[in-house]
Design a protein that fits this description.
CATH topology of the largest domain: TIM Barrel
Distance between the termini: 17 Å
Number of strands: 8
Shape: elongated
Bound molecules: phosphoenolpyruvate, manganese (II) ion
Mean pLDDT: 89
Order of helices and strands: EHEHEHEHEHEHEHHEHHHH
CATH superfamily of the largest domain: Aldolase class I
CATH architecture of the largest domain: Alpha-Beta Barrel
CATH class of the largest domain: Alpha Beta
Structural class: alpha/beta
Helix content: 40-55%
Number of helices: 12
């Protein structure tokens, strides 16, 4: 029998154990390049951005192509320690192997993160988790580069089961081949679903790797804050045009401060009048959702009656012209009422799929099976 697993939801993730308040602001260069660059950036951050609590810098860089800068390696951990000593900032770096973990712990790194190219590999994540057994250190888990929520959760679980309970997820967007202004497509629905499944889990946003360019960073930060993310990790460099990696997306410390000053930090849980107004509006939404569900149930009853009629008169279930006419009418109505075309299409397609499923069951003389009875589990 499979061993019982502790649900991630019981994580005391909101206790960082570092005395860090929300929002957690992490800033620093993509890569640690030299002692001067690490220290110069850290000092610039402390001077310009009083709200930043953690200095980040990649020591081992997982680059897509060989031949680009792959990080200075373990020697850079000393530069991080010096910067911490000089500025009082906590320091964070990326680990991808047990050797990275061992060297980082030895150098006194305060926070570790697992990068987007490591999270999708269960062997690597398990090896890192095993090397962290018995160690009390916060670990941030970036989403996998491919949009797969289960892989992201799986990585968090592997660490949790190894005894790491200061865990947070970092949303850094997903690889995307279609047209997009972003380097990595945000697909906000993934971190939203993660947060919905594990409300206690802290979720941070890395707007730099989502944006890929400095102009979009502020907008991505605001979206993350509006979605109640717990903090931001923003790539910051003392000389961005000459950075050895990710040069287009790194900002100067002064620029970082302007971005932070331009952000509205909403309260995580509203209070007083704001809460009353919200509750009233939410009541309305709940009533409307109820109405929509009732109407859908009525629609499905009628669909089943049509299914019986089609069965008895040997008419095909799928009538493409009829469906086209419905879609056209709904597009016209919906767009006129301010709904987006993509939304109307997705909504109507979901209804259509359910209608066909029910009519197929009726045709086969079967009771209508509940949705989700087919196996769609991920291994
Ligand atoms: C980074 O933080 O510099 C990095 C490599 O990020 P990601 O793993 O999100 O690509
Ligand atoms: Mn980077």
């Amino acid at each position: 029998m499979a061993p019982e697993r502790a649900p991630l939801a019981t994580l005391p993730c909101s206790k960082w154990g570092l005395g860090l308040e929300r929002p957690l602001l992490i800033a620093g260069p993509c890569s640690a390049e030299s002692p001067e660059q690490v220290l110069g950036t850290a000092q610039g951050i402390v001077r310009s951005c009083p709200n930043v609590n953690v200095l980040r810098a990649g020591v081992w860089k997982p680059r897509t192509r060989p031949g680009t800068f792959e990080g200075a390696g373990a020697v850079a951990l000393e530069w991080l320690a010096e910067a911490r000593e000089a500025t009082g900032l906590k320091v964070a770096t990326e680990v991808a192997t047990p050797e990275h973990v061992e060297a980082s712990l030895k150098a006194g790194v305060d926070i570790l993160w697992i990068g987007a190219r490591t999270t999708p590999n269960p062997f690597s994540v398990q090896a890192i988790a095993d090397s962290l057994r018995g160690v009390d250190i916060p670990v941030l888990v970036k989403n996998p580069i491919n949009p797969d929520l289960e892989l992201w959760i799986g990585a968090l679980e592997r660490l949790f089961h190894a005894g790491i309970n200061k865990l947070a997820a970092v949303h850094r967007g997903f690889s995307w081949s279609g047209p997009t202004p972003y380097r990595n497509q945000p697909m906000w629905e993934f971190p939203i679903r993660l947060k919905a499944s594990y409300p206690e889990l802290e979720v941070l946003c890395d707007p730099s790797h989502i944006a890929g360019s400095t102009e979009l960073i502020g907008r991505v930060c605001q979206q993350a804050l509006d979605l109640n993310f717990s903090g931001l990790m923003i790539e910051t460099h003392c000389d961005p045009p000459n950075a050895w990696s990710d040069r287009d997306q790194q900002v100067l410390p002064e620029h970082l401060q302007r971005i932070v000053e331009g952000l509205v930090f909403p309260a995580a849980s509203p209070s007083g009048l704001v809460r009353d107004v919200l509750e009233e509006l939410r009541d309305l939404i709940d009533q409307l959702d109820g109405d929509i569900m009732q109407k859908l149930a009525t629609r499905m009853d009628i669909v089943e009656r049509i299914g019986e009629y089609k069965r008895d008169h040997r008419v095909a279930i799928l009538q493409p012209e009829r469906w086209e006419a419905i879609m056209e009418a709904q597009y016209k109505l919906g767009t006129g009422l301010g709904a987006g075309k993509d939304f109307i299409e997705a909504f109507m397609n979901a209804i259509h799929q359910e209608s066909i499923r029910r009519q197929t069951a009726v045709r086969n003389g079967m009771p209508v099976p509940p949705e989700g009875s087919r196996s769609d589990r991920q291994e």
